[in-house]
Design goal:
There is one protein chain. The chain is α/β, with parallel strands linked by helices. The chain folds into two domains: 115 residues, Rossmann fold; 192 residues, P-loop containing nucleotide triphosphate hydrolases (Rossmann fold), CATH 3.40.50. 34% of the residues lie in helices and 16% in strands. It has twelve helices and eleven strands. The strands form two sheets. Strands 7-8-6-9-10-11 form a six-stranded parallel sheet, sandwiched between helices. Strands 2-1-3-4-5 form a five-stranded parallel sheet, sandwiched between helices. Strand 3, helix 3 and strand 4 form a beta-alpha-beta unit. Helix 3 packs parallel to helix 4 and helix 7 crosses helix 8. The longest helix has 15 residues. It is globular, with a radius of gyration of 20 Å. The relative contact order is 0.12. It comes from Thalassospira profundimaris. This is EBNA-1 nuclear protein. InterPro entries: DgcN-like, DgcN-like_C, DgcN-like_N, P-loop_NTPase. It holds the Pfam family DUF1611_N.
Length: 334
């Protein structure tokens, strides 16, 4: 799917900022794509963008209304319908990251068909995909992997792409999850792909390219997470990664959502990911570590990153605190 920008960010009746985390991520990484925000009564989230009506957004050249808010159960409630129908009538596409599919709501589907606009349900993929073949392809690829879910893989990948572009390195962020797709404007949410086709999906979104071009592939899940390891494995094989970056949150007491499972250590994480990555790229290496040190003070964070770097002889950074320049330096050696 390819989503047209600029965007109008729909925050609906979000009760707080956390409910709008998708919209916050899009605004952070693609501020030039976000023309404004649309908030309903009782909305307590604010992106700091101009508040717009659908009519004002249309005048500003908005192409897509993005549902940048999540609610319990991913439901598209009646209170939103008037706005969604108004956007369709104004000729806007709608992009949706919720579990509920816009295309299954007859009133919206019929209106969109009549106006010739698109409804993008980015958590779902209904197209045809090949089975992965593992054949060597040109170009370079780096994949963010993790000790657990939600440790900063998307942020790390986006930071790497931004640093590469700053240096004039040919690079493209390849989105594999719903927020990443909104940020990239295209991609495939691999957790919605039938398991036989996950590696083929990644081969599709990160195809053969110029020899000096880097695809920066968004990671998902963790090989060590009992719920999501299958998606992580498919990403490793399909990306045919030349390098991986290991992402970690050091204060976790257990795997996210799995109290009975402890996090693996960094050495194990590195070795197991490399072993599986080398099925499709025997030359895959680790380019460094990205540590989410948000819960640590400056002194503790600095010491931890220095210790990890010394132990493995590789760059170790917090992409938020100090950027990813040392990791990109390492990638340029490949």
């Amino acid at each position: 799917m390819k989503i047209e920008h600029p965007y109008l960010m729909f925050l609906g009746d979000a009760p707080d900022e956390l409910a709008a985390k998708t919209a916050i991520g899009i605004k952070q990484w693609r501020p030039d794509w976000c023309k404004g925000q649309l908030r309903l009564e009782n909305c307590n989230a604010d992106l700091g963008l101009p508040d717009m009506t659908i009519a004002q957004a249309r005048e500003a050249g908005v192409k897509t209304l993005v549902l940048g808010v999540a609610n319990r159960g991913g439901i598209i409630g009646p209170v939103w319908m008037e706005t969604l129908l108004e956007a369709i009538d104004a000729g806007m596409d709608i992009a949706n990251g919720l579990h509920t599919k816009l295309s299954t709501i007859p009133e919206l589907a019929e209106a969109a068909a009549a106006k010739g606009v698109s409804l993008f349900d980015v958590r779902h993929f209904d197209g045809k995909l090949p089975v992965g073949n593992g054949e060597k392809r040109s170009g370079k690829r780096v994949l963010a992997v993790g000790t657990d879910c939600s440790v900063g893989k998307m942020y790390t990948a986006l930071a790497i792409e931004a640093e590469m572009k700053k240096r004039g390195i040919k690079s493209t962020f390849r989105a594999t999850g719903q927020t990443g797709i909104f940020i990239a404007g295209e991609g495939i949410s691999v957790d919605a792909v039938i398991s036989d086709f996950i590696s083929g999906a990644v081969e599709t979104i990160a195809p053969a390219n110029d020899a000096d071009h880097w695809d920066v592939v968004e990671g998902q899940g963790s090989l060590f997470h009992a719920s999501y390891a299958g998606v992580s494995m498919g990403l490793l094989h399909g990306s045919q990664a030349d390098a991986i970056v290991v992402c970690h949150e050091p204060t976790r007491s257990h795997m996210r959502g799995l109290p009975g499972y402890s996090l693996p250590d960094l050495k194990t994480t590195m070795e197991v990911n490399l072993m599986h990555a080398r099925l499709t790229n025997p030359d895959c290496v680790v380019a460094g570590f990205a540590i989410n040190t948000k819960a640590l003070d400056d002194a503790a964070a600095t010491k931890l990153m220095a210790d990890i770097s010394a132990e493995f002889g590789l760059p170790c950074v917090d992409p938020v605190r100090n950027g990813v320049a040392p990791i990109v330096d390492k990638l340029q050696e490949i």
